[in-house]
Design goal:
two-stranded antiparallel sheet, 291 residues, Rhopdopsin 7-helix transmembrane proteins, two-stranded antiparallel ribbon, disordered N terminus, 9 helices, mainly alpha, transmembrane, G-protein coupled receptors family 1 profile domain-containing protein
């Protein structure tokens, strides 16, 4: 509910139709993309798989929150709430850190475009034994990327949980107790959400500048990275605007505002990234198949 003081007493179940529609679209889209990636593991980036996995975890947060409100009167409310908050924070971290690692890899590939093209044609030019060794190396690299992404997401979620206290909030008037609680929340948002976005934008810009000198611009998925970056940044516009305003205007920083502006980019990213990935990842394959 919006008032002159900001958002008050909001939760994801307040707009049932909207969130159920998002859950339905997000579930179908991410499940289809994940199934496509599993069938085409040789041409799929591990970071994209982790991004879709983060989207699925974000979608699963919605029924967990519904269960929390449903069982609140039966003594299971607080455990369900803890599970929901941990899942939400981990899903947010996986979404952002997947894009950070993905952008860093694409920038590295474009920066060393000669080596990147050599790697792409390597399996056709070397013996089977060496090709198998190269495939094992790809599996090890994918495992490392997955470990880094999920490790950072879990670490950020744990740090947020350990440094946030229930006493930080006054649930009666839905505001923070003091300025220290407010600054701590802003620090969490800046460290775990704003900084990854800055890294994604910087890597995307650097990759775009380097791609101008690359002859074949379809191999490095530069367009996919660009549109994924745009989708994530658009979803985080309300969140980033709120952070900037909250530095000086405490009335915008309510508990409900924190919840709303954390839920929105999480669910909207989970719903919008599958069409972007589906279009820009499958189009080159269809063109090559036609040739």
């Amino acid at each position: 509910m919006w008032t002159e003081e900001g958002v008050e007493h909001w939760n994801p179940t307040s707009e049932n139709f909207l969130w159920l529609l998002s859950w339905f679209i997000g579930t179908l889209g991410n499940a289809d993309i994940l199934a496509t990636f599993i069938r085409n593991r040789d041409t799929t980036d591990a970071c994209l798989i982790n991004l879709i996995a983060g989207n699925i975890l974000a979608i699963l947060c919605l029924p967990i929150n519904y269960l929390h409100h449903f069982y609140l009167d039966f003594g299971l409310g607080f455990p369900m709430e803890d599970a929901f908050l941990m899942s939400r924070n981990i899903a947010t971290g996986v979404q952002l850190f997947s894009m950070v690692v993905y952008s860093a890899l694409k920038f590295s590939n474009v920066k060393s475009s000669d080596n990147y093209e050599a790697i792409n044609i390597l399996p056709d030019l070397i013996p089977t034994a060496l090709s198998t060794r190269h495939e094992r190396g790809r599996c090890v690299t994918a495992t490392r990327q997955t470990s880094v992404i999920w490790g950072l997401a879990v670490l950020c979620s744990l740090l947020t949980a350990f440094t946030s206290e229930a006493s930080d909030y006054i649930y009666v008037d839905d505001v923070f107790v003091d300025d220290n609680a407010k600054l701590r929340t802003i620090f969490h948002c800046v460290t775990f959400c704003i900084i990854p976005q800055i890294l994604i934008v910087c890597l995307c810009v650097l990759t775009a500048l380097r791609r101008r000198d690359v002859a074949d611009k379809t191999e490095d998925d530069g367009e996919l990275m660009f549109w994924l970056t745009c989708a994530i940044l658009i979803n985080y516009v309300p969140f980033n605007t709120w952070i900037l305003c909250s530095w000086s205007q405490g009335r915008l920083l309510t508990v409900a505002a924190v919840d709303f502006l954390t839920y929105f980019p999480l669910y909207s990213t989970a719903c919008w990234t599958p069409p972007v990935v589906y279009f820009f990842k499958k189009a080159p394959k269809k063109q090559l198949a036609a040739v």
